[in-house]
């Protein structure tokens, strides 16, 4: 697909150098973009009071902000003005896709034009606000979404949102749904293969297109030929006719499996879950024949467990929220909802869900532990530490909470890391490459060395180091993978010493 409007060579150079992003169209070479199945008929949104379209626009704003946060970290504010004329479209699956047009000086606020190509975040807020307004039928008076957009495009930069983070928070408060970070959800591999194949067909690279379609048609599901496979099959047959080769045939769907009584499906499915075969477990649960109305909730929860284990957090949340709407006392449904939200790093939404869980079951140690993880993801360390403390009080054998509580204790006083400053935890290391890296402040080298050491002691130190660097999500993942009673005992001793320090007591072992 050739880009419709000419762009400056610098824009092409920067755009071509980007890593792939799910919302930004990919450059194949300057002048050409990878084909995307865009919905050119999508209508503008009316953002009236409490309208679903206003919620949708604020959600789209979250995806746009996420894309520009990626640009800020990739090309930097010093070059960002080259990307200040975004073209926002939806693809046929409803996902936001962004291209960039030639920037016109007439459309730029003075705070960008005067410092070209530098663009600070207040100027960027203006750019995104203007792009979102172009997606609407017009601004209405005094609605949450309209007020957000008006503040974005205020002529006085001092009255705009000071950063993308603040703009994101305002969009969320105006009804926008939470947006997961890039990479936290499975890529749309088959959809991307079809898009790429269509684009290759358009430029007469028929053989390469056929190979893309074959990838999709070869995919086998447990139960049926899905729509994507049917579309890819038709496209593959078209490409085969152009290549004058035999057309591929889609495999016939298997005969429908007979229904299974829920009592049998529940036992067989749980056994498959224990064996970590969640795909087959889900297939069995789907075949279950429900006779008793009381089985509906348990059936939905079982499917949600499998969906979450297979990486489909959205489906898991949808299933358990339907259960909770009917019966808020279902604690397992609450737990799955929170775990799913944490899996896609929607920490604010997770806190809302876990607070409802705690309100219904205040003495559930797992609820307080999950709350600590959500707070840690938002860098609210003191509150996270208190949540882990509460989890440990309720269940002294909750290993992960003990580790994280002790590690957060260490991190409260050292949130910022300066390159070249010795890392305090290096003092007890023997001479070697790791000690040298940490003493010289080369934190990334130290993390890399510890990742290569699978021992529990090294992984505990790695978790401490990640917390020291403020990389809380990675630290949580490290601590949760450790399974060593001896390491737990050592970490528990550290936790006791940390509490002593908080009370002002002195431990003679600190002098060693």
Molecular structure report:
There is one protein chain. The chain has four domains: 165 residues, Transferase(Phosphotransferase) domain 1 (Transferase(Phosphotransferase), domain 1, Orthogonal Bundle); 55 residues, no CATH class; 71 residues, Serine Threonine Protein Phosphatase 5, Tetratricopeptide repeat (Alpha Horseshoe); 106 residues, no CATH class. A two-stranded antiparallel sheet has the order 1-2. Strands 3-4 form a two-stranded antiparallel sheet. It has a two-stranded parallel sheet with strand order 5-6. The C terminus is likely disordered. It is built from 23 helices and six strands. With 512 residues, the chain is mainly alpha-helical. The protein is globular, with a radius of gyration of 27 Å. 56% of the residues lie in helices and 4% in strands.
List keywords for this structure.
mainly alpha, two-stranded antiparallel sheet, Transferase(Phosphotransferase), domain 1, 6 strands, Serine Threonine Protein Phosphatase 5, Tetratricopeptide repeat
Q: Under the CATH scheme, which class of the largest domain?
A: Mainly Alpha
User: What distance lies between the first and last C-alpha atoms, to the nearest angstrom?
Assistant: 67 Å
Order of helices and strands: HEEHEEHHHHHHHEHHEHHHHHHHHHHHH
What is the strand content? under 5%
User: Mean pLDDT across all residues, rounded?
Assistant: 76
Low-confidence stretches: 413-422, 487-512
Overall helicity:
55-70%
- Count of strand segments: 6
What coarse outline follows from CA principal-axis ratios? globular
Could you please say which CATH topology of the largest domain applies here? Transferase(Phosphotransferase), domain 1
Structural class: mainly alpha
Number of domains: 4
């Amino acid at each position: 697909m050739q880009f419709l409007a000419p762009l400056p060579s610098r824009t092409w150079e920067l755009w071509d150098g980007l890593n792939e992003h799910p919302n930004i169209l990919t450059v194949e070479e300057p002048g050409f973009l990878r084909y995307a199945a865009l919905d050119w008929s999508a209508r503008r949104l009316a953002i009236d009071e409490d309208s679903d379209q206003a919620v949708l626009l604020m959600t789209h704003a979250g995806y746009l902000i996420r894309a520009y946060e990626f640009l800020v970290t990739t090309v930097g504010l010093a070059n960002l003005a080259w990307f200040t004329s975004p073209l926002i479209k939806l693809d046929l699956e409803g996902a936001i896709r962004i291209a960039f047009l030639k920037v016109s000086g007439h459309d730029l606020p003075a705070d960008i034009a005067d410092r070209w190509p530098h663009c600070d975040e207040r100027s960027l807020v203006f750019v995104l606000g203007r792009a979102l307004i172009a997606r609407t039928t017009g601004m209405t008076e005094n609605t949450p979404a309209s007020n957000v957009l008006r503040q974005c495009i205020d002529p006085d930069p001092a009255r705009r949102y000071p950063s993308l983070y603040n703009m994101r928070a305002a969009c969320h408060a105006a009804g926008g749904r939470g947006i997961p970070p890039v990479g936290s959800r499975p890529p749309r591999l088959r959809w991307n293969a079809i898009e790429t194949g269509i684009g290759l067909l358009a430029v007469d690279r028929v053989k390469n297109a056929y190979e893309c379609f074959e990838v999709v048609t070869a995919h086998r599901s447990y139960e049926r030929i899905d729509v994507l496979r049917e579309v890819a099959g038709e496209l593959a047959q078209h490409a085969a006719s152009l290549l004058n080769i035999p057309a591929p045939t889609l495999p016939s769907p298997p005969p429908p499996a007979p229904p299974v009584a829920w009592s049998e499906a529940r036992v067989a499915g749980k056994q498959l879950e224990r064996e970590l075969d969640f795909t087959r477990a889900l297939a069995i649960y789907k075949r279950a024949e429900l006779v008793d109305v009381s089985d509906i909730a348990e059936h939905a929860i079982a499917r949600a467990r499998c969906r979450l284990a297979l990486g489909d957090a959205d489906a898991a949340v949808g299933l358990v929220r339907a259960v909770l709407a009917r019966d808020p006392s279902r604690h397992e449904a609450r737990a799955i909802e929170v775990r799913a939200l944490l899996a896609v790093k929607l920490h604010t939404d997770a806190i809302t869900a876990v607070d409802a869980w705690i309100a219904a079951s205040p003495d559930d140690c797992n609820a307080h532990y999950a709350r600590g993880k959500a707070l840690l993801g938002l860098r609210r360390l003191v509150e996270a530490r208190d949540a882990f403390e509460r989890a440990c009080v309720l269940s002294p054998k909750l290993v992960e909470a003990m580790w994280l509580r002790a590690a957060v204790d260490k991190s409260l006083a050292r949130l910022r890391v300066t390159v070249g400053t010795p890392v305090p935890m290096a003092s007890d290391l023997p001479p070697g490459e790791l000690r040298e890296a940490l003493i010289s402040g080369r934190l990334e080298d130290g993390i890399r060395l510890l990742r290569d050491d699978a021992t529990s002691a090294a992984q505990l130190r790695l978790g401490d180091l990640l917390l020291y660097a403020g990389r809380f999500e990675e630290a949580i993942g490290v601590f949760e993978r450790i399974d060593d009673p001896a390491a737990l005992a050592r970490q528990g001793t550290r936790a006791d010493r940390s509490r002593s320090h908080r009370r002002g007591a002195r431990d003679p072992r600190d002098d060693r």
